[in-house]
Design brief:
This protein is mostly helical and 344 residues long. Helix content is 74%, strand content 0%. The protein is globular.
Length: 344
């Protein structure tokens, strides 16, 4: 049902959007696209995703490089075909299945949350640069400034959580002791596992490496937008490509539809047109970039999911007759390690 609603909403959004554009001119722009630059854009997509796989291993050594690349693509595929960004949960499940150590899905999800915060932080910095060099309608400018500010706050919270994770653990345990029960015990265990996923970022060299690799990866993504824009428009500029990059990704913050279908096509042309790009050309750029990225990640994710045998792990988990709880070992000195075999 959620899939049908999300799909129907995407179709309605696209239908309403296309009524306000000259689709003949948009199609003509797409027809004249230079294939050489589009091939470069596809190669940059592959390079950016390989860098993503390497980046994740900075703080999650329990996965090999190749498995890291695979599960990231599977997560993208899930986000493209499932509503509500459920691909992140699919990615966490597949990551826990391939981890070399006893790394649960909740810890994997915590690691993914940390990655998303780093992504948002770097994109927020890029967004502030855009506001400095690109003239936009003031209402649209606020649409970039507020998410940038929010991710700065989230990044600060991430750093503080890593730095004071032992205090947080003790606080959660104290709450559980104060209000004992199944719900608070479950919350205590999951909070501990989420912290387990971000604790490896606790050293300064590793945090700096994570931020630097995140910035490099998003530079690759910006180059993809630049190559796509240049294939359609010889006057494409780096600042327009940066605007393109930031708005495309901020437009997916609220998971209204699968893969951002419709929301990206509505939001990005508004910003490009405000910056001086012709309306048919702006729509052509968005359609070409979004369609290319969507197909690339969905096909790659499906190949890895089926070819890598990840789908079999769901059957294995589903055949479990009863949940098994790993109790916290008070002598280990580590965080809470409880994990359910049948996690949601």
């Amino acid at each position: 049902m959620e899939f049908a609603i999300s799909f129907a909403l995407a179709v309605l959004i696209l239908y309403a959007l296309f009524r306000h554009f000259d689709l003949h001119q948009t199609a003509e722009s797409l027809r004249k696209a230079r294939p050489g630059l589009l091939i470069i854009a596809v190669l940059l997509m592959a390079a950016a995703d390989l860098l993503r796989g390497w980046r994740w291993r900075i703080w999650q050594r329990s996965l090999s490089f190749w498995h890291s690349v695979q599960v990231i693509q599977i997560g993208f595929m899930g986000n493209n075909i499932l509503p509500g960004r459920l691909g992140e949960l699919l990615r966490a499940h597949c990551a826990s299945a391939k981890a070399h150590d006893d790394w649960g899905r909740t810890a994997a999800l915590g690691s993914i949350v940390a990655e998303r915060i780093l992504d948002g932080f770097v994109l927020g910095v890029f967004g502030l640069v855009v506001l400095r060099f690109v003239h936009l309608d003031h209402r649209l400018a606020w649409g970039l400034f507020l998410p940038s500010l929010a991710f700065a706050g989230l990044a600060t919270s991430l750093v503080l959580s890593v730095r004071h994770q032992e205090r947080i653990r003790r606080l959660v345990v104290a709450v559980n002791d104060k209000f004992p029960g199944r719900l608070t015990t479950f919350a205590r265990d999951k909070a501990g596992q989420l912290l387990d996923g971000i604790v490896p970022l606790g050293t300064l060299p590793r945090m700096l490496a994570a931020i630097a690799s995140t910035a490099a990866m998003w530079c690759f993504e910006g180059a993809i937008g630049y190559a796509v824009g240049l294939a359609l428009w010889p006057d494409m500029s780096l600042r327009t490509a940066l605007l393109f990059l930031v708005v495309v990704n901020f437009a997916t913050l609220v998971p209204v539809t699968m893969g951002g279908i419709g929301t990206i096509e509505v939001a990005v042309p508004l910003y490009l047109i405000s910056s001086g790009v012709a309306a048919p050309l702006a729509l052509a750029m968005v359609l070409l970039q979004h369609t290319g990225r969507y197909l690339f990640n969905t096909i790659a994710g499906a190949v890895f999911y089926l070819g890598g045998g990840f789908h079999g792990h769901f059957a294995d988990r589903g055949s479990s007759r009863a949940p098994q709880l790993r109790r916290n070992d008070p002598t280990s000195g580590g965080g809470v390690q409880a994990d359910m075999v049948c996690e949601p």
